[in-house]
Amino acid sequence: MSPTPKRARARKAYRTEWVQRWMPPKPLVGTPIIERVLNRHTVIDCPESRLVVAVLARAIVDCLCLTNRRLRREARRFVLGRGLEFWCGLVGLQPDFVRAIARKAGYLADEKAHWRKVPVKAPVKAPASSTPSEPAASSQSAPVHSAACPAQNPTPQGEPIHA
User: Fold this and answer.
1) Mean of pLDDT over the chain
2) What distance, in Å, lies between the first and last C-alpha atoms of the chain?
């Protein structure tokens, strides 16, 4: 017996498209280091203050979220806005200090400076057939005429049109 030939796979055709992607630089430090630095500067050392610092650190990390643009925008608005002042006031941190830590760690990257054009493979769509597929009419069926719409039933050429 001869070996059976492998089935030939239909190769998909791809074309290259250039799309804009937000590609910020990698942060210099991770979340645990940011939490440790912020915990060192809190006024009170208790579980609640560590929870507040964890919320602040999570907001800082979310400023670089690559997958969810809305989450990134909300986190940046929180870190750069007045919401940060309230949370920092709970544990005795200065909001400018927290923002400086976020910038120096690389989490508050400039939003407009890091958009890059990158190539993406996109499948080529098969060309549509020029003749639409219509059901074949059988010889027994009679043509259907519409009497309701005068635009579909134009008057014959030789007859005058009466108003």
Assistant:
1) 77
2) 85
